[in-house]
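Reviewer 2 asked us to include a model.

Predict the structure of this chain.
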Amino acid sequence: MIAPGPRERLAPGVRLVRLNLGQLDAAPSPAVAVIMVRIVILGCAGSGKTTLARQLGERTGAAVICLDAIWQSHWDEKDVPAFRSLMKEAHAGDEWISDGNFALATFDIRLPRATLVIWLERSKLYCAWRAIERVFKPGEAHRIGELPRVLAFIWRFEGVNRPRIEAARVIHGADVPVRRLTGSRDIAAFLSLYGSTASDRLPN
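Predicted model (structure tokens):
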């Protein structure tokens, strides 16, 4: 169950529930308000956005959209329109978990439909360690040759990137509730709202 946002006041006697898409073959009772899950996950590189998105997807059945996997490493500014078209298509569904920042290119597409924004609040050292660790994992898309650029991004994130992301969030999604998760226990407590799975693997 998810608490309604600041503008989602329920009428007396109305229950709030969250149904997976597979449960919508029968119309809900008029006394039930159905909240779809459309979550945008933000945070520094290495903060665990993709891991959290996967865990939420397993619990909710919502599509998991990883922006880093859609944006191609060889693309540049001229490819932004194509990227935006892919974003519109990917986020057209009723339920999704959207993992990634790309604030200037995507917030006007994602945030107006989002039901929740999650900020993963992790330290620079934590993010840097995870960024280093993941390039050595088999099957990882992240490459060791990109590590210097990623570490530089992590080091300047709080002073440069976060303010830009927050400014864009306020413009395009000021009314979307924000949940800030600061550590593994915080993340575990949040995930427990959506049930449990056998394959849970929380970041350390």
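The beta strands are 15-17, 32-34, 38-43, 63-66, 96-99, 116-120, 178-181. The CA atoms of residues 142 and 192 lie 29 Å apart. We have added this to the supplementary material.
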